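Quick one, T. Sequence first:
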Amino acid sequence: MYGQHLLLGLAGPELTPEDVSLLKKVSPAGVILFTRNIVSPQQTRKLTDDLRDLLEEDIIIAIDQEGGRVTRTKDMAPAGPSASQLRKSGKTHHAAQHGHLTGSMLAQLGINLNFAPVLDIAFDDSLFSSLPERCYGTNSQEVINHAGMFNRWMRKHKVLSCGKHFPSCSHAAVDPHHDLPQSAVTKDQMLANDLLPYTALMPELDSLMTCHVHFSELDPQEPGLPASLSKNIITQLLRGQLGFDHHLVFTDDLDMGAIVNTYGRGEDLKRAILAGNDIGLICHDMHTAVDALTHLKDIPQDIVDDTEKRIKRFKKKMKYPPAFDTDRWQRICDEVVELNAHFDAEEGTGFSQVAEF
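Structure tokens:
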């Protein structure tokens, strides 16, 4: 029962006996694929088909496929434009085309959830964080226009979406992959800026991802508490005040330094579920999943019931993917190349690939 509170990573491009044993034992809500799992379109589709055979057809198969440097298929297909390139073009039809091609590509691979679009605002591109190139706007309206268009067209291909990183990574000067960012922004300031993309696009988003950032003004009594583990932010602000009560909420990867440097495995997942998340991500140390679940036995039944309802509601929206078509795949790749021709090929090459550890 508790396995549905987890989304797990896999070690490589095919299911090993160890993977099969772990997945059967945990029975997670789903898995997330990274570059390490992706070699060719045919291999990737076989992997997702094998996962459906192993864990039933309603398994969530997720990926981070934003475009630009966050493109997990980059070793076998052209990467689409980054969010910042789309923003600077000023043409929302480019974002629509990118969403259409992303949805087409992921559907061919058998992937049914994309952890995108990013809804953070690029207030300061000079911040040393994980966000450069990944934001659709320097203000809330730009994000709403471009991210909304991307999201709308991607979902036309029955690939579900996840807005991130709630409530905001925009003020973080530290990359949460390594350490816990701190932010002194107030709730009123966020309601006036950071949260507008979430409230505007909420009816069109299938889920949200919470961030590993501490907001001192929202959690003054718990110094160093990440938003992803905060009941004030997830249950009271997101679900209560903003009304995102019937949608699925994921944590960002619990293997990030912002979490593992402070919280033990199991305690992190328990606090995440108690705070109001439905599913915690363990993307890399998958072998810790069984131990993590033992910490959930004391979760109140009403929380478990509410989470179960949201997961079932989410999974009812998932569709079985179309058959893989080699010609279709090639046409998609060709169209991505055509779209990229609208942008400066050298733009945004100063940043490395977002960490996958």
